[in-house]
């Protein structure tokens, strides 16, 4: 299975939907991340339920189950085609050595 990097997002395969995860059926569930600086969005282009489903784990992690290839799009990044599998969506973080703290990378 393939791991995908899309700007500050990492979409990595996991074996199954984590126990206790609930399906996210909100209208914006297909938006995986908002750009803090630009307002751009990392989003699934065709979020039909027979194509992809979105979940949130009890500890707040985002998971998606892809049934058919889907496109992950963003205004400033190359469009990626995500293969069928179950994925965790991770926001990249960085360590600031001068302030000695971890923060989420801003897009």
Overview in brief:
This protein is mainly β and about 110 residues long. It has strands at about 5, 10-15, 20-25, 30-35, 40-45, 50-55, 60-65, 70-75, 75-80, 85-90, 95, 100-105. The protein has a six-stranded antiparallel β-sheet, with no helix packed on it. Strands 4-5-8-9 form a four-stranded antiparallel β-sheet, with no helix packed on it.
Note the topology.
Layout lengths: L3 E3 L2 E5 L8 E2 L7 E4 L6 E4 L7 E5 L5 E5 L3 E5 L2 E6 L2 E7 L1 E4 L4 E4 L3
Protein model, in words:
- The protein is mainly β.
- The protein has no helices and twelve strands.
- The protein has strands at residues 4-6, 9-13, 22-23, 31-34, 41-44, 52-56, 62-66, 70-74, 77-82, 85-91, 93-96, 101-104.
- The strands form three sheets. Strands 1-2-10-7-6-3 form a six-stranded antiparallel sheet, with no helix packed on it. It has a four-stranded antiparallel sheet with strand order 4-5-8-9, with no helix packed on it. The protein has a two-stranded antiparallel ribbon with strand order 11-12.
- Strand 1 (4-6) and strand 2 form a beta hairpin.
- The protein is globular.
